[in-house]
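Input/output pair, single chain:
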Amino acid sequence: MRVLRRVLVVLLVLVVAAAVGGYWYARPLVATGTGYAAHNACAVTFVAGRGDPEADLPPNPLVPYLTGYLNRAGRSSTAAALWVLSKRKAWYVPGYGCTVAAERPADPGRATKVANDPNPLSDDPAPAADPAVDALVGTAFGDGRSAAARRALGTRGIVVLRDGKLVAERYAPGFDARTPQLGWSMAKSVTNLMVGRYVLSRGLSLDEKGLRPEWTDERRDITVDQLMRMTSGLSWDETYDLGTPITQMLYAEPDMAKYAASRPLAHQPGTYQQYSSGSTNILCSWLTGLADVPDTDFPRTVLFAPLGLSSAVWEPDASGRPVCSSYLWATPRDWAAIGQFALQDGVWNGKRLLPEGWMKASTTPEPVARSEEKGYAAGWWANRQADGTLVNPALPADAYWASGHDGQRLYVVPSAGLVVVRLGFSPTVPASGLGTDELVRDLVALRPAAG
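Output:
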């Protein structure tokens, strides 16, 4: 019996040691998952004003083990695995959204007030019913599909502008015209607009190099334009899995630009195109460093206020810098206003805010020796590729779009005077199954081409 007890004690020690060792091995992976959950709960609650943050957790093996709580009085959220493992917190600041950090970030100061007066869409009444257009929007919402298929499709908001006028909008239950929604990587396209604002107002050069003081090797040759076009050559993996560079950056790094800038070169700058959220955050750190306003307030001053995007919130990391790759929230109407601003080549209420021809240059892909992307230009996806072929022959050649994780889309079709926004939560639906290309195609077809 004494021997048996000793054996059991030894086995227990081994099991505990294995469990502890396994946890410490997996701890970085678990921390990215709890960081995601903490940020999601905070932003969905305090930015979007919703009460169902669990509805925005994508399926992965960690989700059943996530636990947490909201502190409404303290404006924070906490998430952990099994209550105690890899505990992470996210903190909310009005006007700036939520930030994952161990302690509440330093007070960034009062956010610049953004009035909706410059935005003609903000107070427009709901559009008059148009049976043909409404039927197309209904198809993109999953009308005619089973309840399960509609839930999987996850469409939450669609707005259609024609010639600058609101012609259709529809929202899922629990959402309306005042509910901000996360655009994910559509923020990259909006970052392009902020760069354009400074190119016009301050004469910045897209060929500028030496963008980071620590880049004393070949990385010093990376240009602003290469960061926008994803040809920096920095090593990256945009796969949204636990432990990849993109999830490590978004949920485990206090200074996202610094982390992305620390990545080594995998290719000579300008020779290889690879999609990278890290590149956009490096670009944003350089851009905000030139400003005479706090980093956190930069988007509100440079873009939101001039356009009247009163719902827009661009969340910062723990360094206080906006996460320009991913964390821009806005109502579908404000996303549509961004698209209309692009369609008008940066002219808003009769005033030019972007260099003339900026959008043409930004939506024209340039030849590159090797590319992983089809039609990626400078922060925007273009239908016409560098070799002249079309990404989607069913869409007009001049169509371009912003695209975000989980099915976010903003289309601009200058030849049809069309802007289409689709927002939702579609983690299990491939891009080809969203029905957004078909929606744009059919909306274009409703009005014969001029001439």
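The CA atoms of residues 383 and 391 lie 5 Å apart. The first strand starts at residue 66 and ends at 71.
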